[in-house]
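User: structure tokens for this one?
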Amino acid sequence: MHTAETVTLARLPSGVPVQTTVHVYEPADGTADRATLYIQAAQHGREINGTEVLRRLHSRLDRESISGRIIAVPVADPLTFDRVSYTTPEAVDSVNPNMNRVWPGDSDGSLHERMAAALWEYASEADAIVDLHTGSPDMLTHTVYRKGHDESRTLAEAFGIDVLLAEAAGEDAEEEWAERNFGGKLRVAATEANIPSITPELAHNKQLVEDAIDAGVSGVLNVARHLGILSGAVDSWDGKTYRNHLGRVTAAESGLFVAREDLELGRDVRPGDHLGWVYDPTTYEMLQEVEAERGGVVYSIAREATVTAGTTLVGVALPLDGDEDDPFDSVDEEFDF
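Assistant:
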């Protein structure tokens, strides 16, 4: 059985409501005697593949025999969706322009805090959460989960993307984690509430990409099977796990970044491998020989060549061994560039 509810998340200064639609799928007899899965998409409005994933799942979920409940929000942030943006303009929410930094929200707070609080009423009832996002055109599709949270890792494996990124949180994370207010991510707030939660990053933003959409549809169905909401087996996961953020290679100087022609997503690199150059566009002076500082897999590449100092040029995810508390300091010789 499917029901759809229009929910007011907040109100603009003019009094116009900010609204979205919450879809609920559950047994026709109303006895949702198993798990509840909460799924949302487009928390960042330019990240639209997740919205299409939920549309394609709609007719299937409406006719499937469901044992449990699925709550789906295809447009979590209508403000950024309408602007095809990652954050809102200062005039809309100057305090918290990024909705994914304010969870679990505050019903008396800024606009985004109120919106998050309204959706948290649904998410906090769930036994698992899938927060669908997309990366840039030059980012490897992957799933992020909180490092050390075993139930979230199991959920990520069930989703089925080959590459998992374990993101440290709180005291285990680097300074940037606190500086960028990552503690306000939905995934972090959920795990703090002991709700397993994952963030699949499904390929490009601003574009509907078939491979990413297919992966998202398959992943959500697998998670529903894993939770016992849908019948059927989940294939065993056979991918690799890496640490998030620690291996990023940044620009030491502002200029133009030229990546090596053979630098590709998914390529394994070792410490010291040459990745490209940054040069002064006016004098042609070479400012930086860009090299990998640590070994791992390339999961993002800056293709917008004009860069400022501190910009991430290449994201290198560091491999983990079987014990997530002991990441490899280096990689074996098999990681060949």
